[in-house]
Amino acid sequence: MKTHSNPTASRWANLLLVALVLITFAGFTSCSSPMKFAVSQVVPAAEGKVSITKTKNENYNVKLTVNNLAEPGRLTPPKHGYVVWFETSAGKLTNVGRLKITSPMFSKSLRASFSTTAVEKPVKVFITAENLDVANYPSYPVILTTH
Prior knowledge:
Elements: H1 7-30, E1 35-36, E2 47-54, E3 60-69, E4 81-87, E5 93-98, E6 100-102, E7 110-118, E8 124-130, E9 142-145
Antiparallel strand pairs: 1-2, 2-3, 3-7, 4-5, 4-8, 6-7, 8-9
């Protein structure tokens, strides 16, 4: 029995395969797996994660969430708030902002979230407790860090 191949169907199958490969590749390049913070020596119950995704304009969207934080005023010594820092591959440290802390209804645990866009991809993200939100250099100890 002689079979006939359909050139139009073959072209559509090839186009579909190429489109599927491109979509899969785009999905892998635009997403990243979340980084987890190491266990804190200062606030051991605190846990969180950071996700970094590359945008179409070659910037990076950075989102982080932290659960079970202590009130910064209850730390020793007491502090005013928590500040998020980025470190780049060149070793540059940048204060990127203050964590927004919330307490869900009927819960004593504190949650914090933060979102920003960065020009350079952070290789390390860490959080310190500060007296000033506009600190130029992080104070120690570091509350949470991704490394």
